[in-house]
Amino acid sequence: MAFVGSSQFLGSVLGGGVVRRACAVGGRQMVTMAALKLYVKAGENGEELGDCPFSHKAILMMSAKNVEYDLEMINLTNKPDWYLELNKNGTVPTLVDGDEVVDDSDGILKYVEEKFPEPPLLVDDPTASEATAPVFGAFAGFVKNKDPEKEEELKATFETALDGLDAHLKKNGPYVAGEAMSTLDFNLAPKLWHAKHALAHYKEYEFPEKFDSVNNYMDTIFSSDVFKKTLYPPETVVWGWSKFFK
Q1: Domain housing 223
Q2: Do both 58 and 110 map to the same domain?
Q3: pTM (2 decimals)?
Q4: Can you list the pairs that 62-69 forms with residues at least 24 positions away whose Cβ atoms lie under 8 Å?
Q5: Which residue numbers are catalytic?
Q6: pLDDT given for residue 24 in this prediction
Q7: Predicted local distance difference test score (pLDDT) of residue 76
Q8: What is the pLDDT of residues 61-96, one digit of tens each?
Q9: 132 with 241, same domain?
């Protein structure tokens, strides 16, 4: 989908995701495609799927819903002007459904759930969200650290987050919200995929055996059909985090 000149959007808010009606480009009516388009981060070669866990979250939702859509890669180091017209922040993922534009991953999950309600996957569980929320930030702080004096502190912070997640999964598993896979897993699993492979490469760190529920969860989710159909290799994760080590 190409954009030329300035664009105008009429918008509304849908469940936290900004949904805009892309009605005109350069003063002309925009020609839209009937199929859904999902714009995501491109990999190193610009053509294969990149390492963005938020893009991965949206892809998991589309796959689990068996939705037909076009997947298009965006080079985040050289964003096309037309993409910045579509998404002013230049972030990924972005979902385009005809003349509707949803420009954040949580909004995409809600939009897809409302448009394709079967099977039901959207779960709102504050307790589960509280257990999963600290993991990615703690991992990012640990993996990016270059100060030896802070290493043990940041490692401990990450393992505290894992401890909370492990306790939740032990009580409520096998999935984040219980017996069935849900959007909470689509949010968490890509982040754990990053943590597992980035920490192994950059920190020579393996998830301790004491977090048996987390390890079992990763084994289960990473071997699931929906995850295997949507994943990118560990090397892509390593490439994605390499910018912090140059």
Answers
A1: 126-245
A2: yes
A3: 0.86
A4: 62/36, 62/38, 62/112, 63/226, 63/229, 63/230, 64/119, 64/121, 64/181, 64/186, 64/226, 65/112, 65/116, 65/119, 65/121, 67/36, 67/112, 67/116, 68/35, 68/36, 69/35, 69/36, 69/37, 69/38
A5: 52
A6: 33
A7: 96
A8: 999 999 999 999 999 999 999 999 999 999 999 999
A9: yes
